[in-house]
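User
New here, help please:
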Amino acid sequence: MKFKLVTTGILALCLGVGAVYAADAPQVVRQGLMKKIGGSMGALGAIAKGQKPYDAATVKTSLSTIAESAKDFPNHFPAGSETGNDTEAAPAIWQNTADFKAKAEKLSSDAQTILASMPTDQAGVGQAVQTLGAECGVCHQAYRLKR
């Protein structure tokens, strides 16, 4: 009986440690950052399309999130994280790291610039979405695996 209890405890501990490791894995971290950027772009897109009313707080939060996440994003591509955890990162990231980092920095910088001039209406948000969306598309073309 004690053997089963000890075995069950060890198994639970191992599963818990495995889950914590997976949550901290660079692939998981960068997927989380992409989800933040995607959610922010979605919020801006809804305003730009007139699906949601203009809301300065949403615009500010979304642009800030994009700027911060894009700036941090390149920090989560260490050697050895090319595969695993359903990553969609293309090998080109590790082959052309300088360009990859430059594209992320441009997205961050442009989001900060747009935030500094803060769009004040639906049309301004639409222009922001076009600018930032084009940058996302260029990076995804070069550095995201097509599935």
About this structure: Residues 2-24 form the longest helix (23 residues). The chain is about 75% helix and 0% strand.
